[in-house]
Design a protein that fits this description.
Layout: E1 6-8, E2 11-22, H1 33-36, E3 46-52, H2 58-66, H3 70-79, E4 84-92, E5 95-102, E6 109-119, E7 128-137, E8 140-148, H4 156-169, E9 185-191, H5 201-209, H6 214-217, H7 221-226, H8 230-233, E10 277-283, H9 298-303, E11 315-324, E12 336-344, E13 353-358, E14 361-362, E15 367-373, E16 384-389, E17 400-403, E18 415-420, E19 430-438, E20 443-447, E21 451-454, H10 457-461
Parallel strand pairs: 2-3, 8-9, 14-21
Antiparallel strand pairs: 1-2, 2-12, 3-5, 4-5, 6-7, 7-8, 9-10, 11-12, 13-15, 15-18, 16-17, 16-19, 19-20, 19-21
């Protein structure tokens, strides 16, 4: 199977593609293929997608708790045929964060946890705040935080306070990384809502139209705040070489042309364009930066994590692209994308469980599978092994499953055999994979190689066609 990872002096390189987009309660009516740059080379390994203002009306939100929201379906339907599986997601009202990985990486993404922090309207409704996902990727601790901070030009200080509050108060039930900033690599992104100060509307628009974006950088509030706030100085950001992504007329490339009424009935001002939508990252410094640190150290801090002087497993982060996609018009924001290379040496390369099919599989006879626990982990008799069609969307998208051995937990390296009832095996056959799902770890920790299930003789004998087989040919 093709992958975006490749080796460099004993280290592997992985491609991470990130998206942040305030969708302004719109439904996903557009093809998101170009947003995900699926056909770009080298192929991606991870997708991280953060949305803000996903439709969160109370009835809509309750229905999304039962069935996944339309945006999640759109991204799953687009990514699954390319071999990407949804690892996890977290939702808080309008904030949604989705993590996808190439199928082959699933057993090496562990210790997944999600959390959220409410800000705005006294934290009650959760219309603003942050949602985050943390996990270890081949043993490297990573955290992704999707934020929607306070709006309006005059609230720059409140935005900084909210950002700092989220970073300090979100916690995880992991002893070595209880807080966001304890992780080796942190990506913070979203509708951070920072505006462009001082310059008037006409100057901003003429600078954009003439391609002189650099004239606006010094008055970008986030850039200005970075000079004053030490915690912001630890975050890196690529150059703002794309047009401000807010505020646009919907279905157009034109900045806000509306004349909203003020509460007194007079025409209000049009919104000044701004870089509200941002993607930042931070590598954990060797130690807390002191005031007399040389500025020359910044480059090293930006590229390499050294948790201790003897860090055997550093990680390098390189940003290859930071841009917006002007072709999308369902929202008054344009989506922002960033593409990164993560260069690291794997802390391990063996799955916790080895699982494999035995013999020939078809719906004409019961089938066998075996699994072997290769490393101690918190196993449970509620663990199960799913049969997945290659191109599955998430860990619950199985054709059938079997419970692991019920009576006692397995010994290390013990080969355990389980039978799969022939009536549970897809009649039409095809390409499948077995996945061991850990209930305690909430993720797939072992995958078989892809294998073929043969078409059942019953298909021919009974004259069955795909439409007759409920749910099999999907």
């Amino acid at each position: 199977m093709s992958t975006g990872s490749f080796q460099s002096g004993g280290r592997d390189k992985y491609r991470l593609h990130m998206v942040t987009w305030n969708v302004a309660t719109a439904e996903p009516s557009e093809d998101v293929t170009s947003l995900l740059q699926l056909d770009a080379q080298p192929p991606k390994d991870l997708y991280v997608i953060g949305l803000q203002e996903v439709n969160a009306a109370p009835v809509k939100f309750i229905s999304d708790l039962i069935v996944e929201d339309s945006w999640s379906h759109q991204f799953m339907d687009t990514l699954a045929p390319w071999g990407f599986v949804k690892v996890t997601s977290v939702r808080m009202q309008g904030l949604l964060l989705l993590i996808f990985a190439k199928q082959m990486h699933l057993p090496y993404i562990r210790n997944i946890q999600t959390t959220y922090t409410r800000t705005g309207i006294f934290g009650y409704w959760g219309n603003k705040g942050g949602v985050s996902v943390r996990f270890s990727f081949y043993g490297h601790m990573m955290c992704f935080l999707n934020c929607h901070l306070a709006a309006h030009m005059h609230n720059a200080l409140q935005r900084v306070d909210e950002f700092e509050y989220i970073l300090e108060t979100q916690d995880f039930d992991i002893f070595d990384t209880p807080h966001i900033l304890d992780h080796k690599v942190v990506f913070c992104f979203g509708d951070l809502n920072f505006r462009i100060e001082d310059h008037g509307l006409h100057f901003i628009r003429s600078s954009i139209n003439s391609g002189r974006l650099n004239l606006l950088w010094s008055k970008d509030q986030l850039t200005m705040m970075k000079k004053k706030e030490p915690f912001l100085q630890e975050f890196e950001e690529g150059p703002l070489n794309f047009k401000p992504t807010y505020k646009f007329d919907r279905k157009s490339d034109s900045y806000d042309t509306s004349s909203p009424k003020t509460w007194l009935g007079f025409n209000g001002k049009k919104r000044k364009p701004a870089w509200t939508d941002r993607i930042l990252w931070r590598i954990k410094p060797k130690s807390l930066p002191s005031e007399d640190d040389d500025e020359d150290d910044d480059d090293e801090k930006a590229s390499t994590s050294e948790d201790s002087g003897q860090d055997e497993y550093p990680i390098l982060v390189t940003q290859n692209q930071y841009t917006s996609d002007m072709s999308y018009g369902v929202s008054d924001h344009k989506p922002v994308t960033a593409n990164f290379t993560l260069e690291l040496r794997k802390c391990f390369d063996t799955p916790l469980v080895h699982v494999s099919p035995e013999g020939v599989w078809s719906a004409d006879q019961n089938a066998l599978l075996t699994y072997v626990v290769q490393e101690d982990f918190m196993s449970s008799t509620w663990d199960w092994i799913g049969l997945y069609k290659v191109g599955f969307k998430n860990p619950s998208d199985y054709e059938t499953f079997v419970w692991v051995r019920e009576k006692e937990l397995p010994e290390m390296n013990e080969v355990i055999q389980i039978s799969v009832d022939k009536d549970e095996i897809p009649l039409l056959g095809g390409e499948f994979v077995l996945g061991y799902y850990s209930t305690n770890m909430q993720c797939i920790i072992g995958l078989s190689a892809n294998f073929q299930i043969l078409e059942s003789k019953r298909v021919v004998m009974e004259g069955l066609v795909p439409e007759d087989i409920n749910g099999i040919n999907k």
